[in-house]
Design brief:
Elements lengths: L1 E7 L6 H17 L3 H9 L4 E6 L2 H14 L3 E5 L11 E9 L1 H8 L6
Parallel strand pairs: 1-2
Antiparallel strand pairs: 1-4, 3-4
Helix pairs in contact: 3-4
GO cellular component, one term: cytosol
Protein name: Peptidyl-tRNA hydrolase
GO molecular function: peptidyl-tRNA hydrolase activity
Length: about 110
């Protein structure tokens, strides 16, 4: 089992900002996951991969793909307190779920 977090590389977020957005995405998708999947993922070490996207539209296409597959997911919009304008879409988490299910959505992306 794993979770994929897709972050926008086109925004030029600093490392701390990127880490915060990835954390927001991970937790948000986790909260929408059923308890049995949560338990299995946590027991298996909470495997995560962080991947790159090159724009907002790419994140929404991936979110639609996850939605059609019935995979928990979460789009993150920044609050705008630091580097980005309020409402800027920064990241998407897909899963946790079975590796092959997650890969059907995010398998073509590069590691961040």
């Amino acid at each position: 089992m794993k979770q994929a977090i897709v972050a926008r590389a086109d925004l030029g977020m600093g490392r701390g900002k990127l880490a915060a957005q990835v954390a927001h995405a991970s937790l948000s998708a986790y909260e929408d996951t059923d308890s049995q999947t949560r338990k299995r993922w946590k027991g298996g070490g909470q495997k995560k991969v962080v991947l790159k996207a090159n724009g907002e539209s790419e994140l929404f296409k991936l979110a639609d793909k996850a939605e059609r597959a019935g995979i928990p997911h979460a789009i993150i919009r920044d609050a705008g307190h630091t580097q980005l304008d309020p409402g800027t879409v920064t990241a998407l988490a897909v899963g946790p779920g079975e590796d092959d299910e997650i890969d059907r959505v995010t398998g073509d992306l590069s590691l961040y």
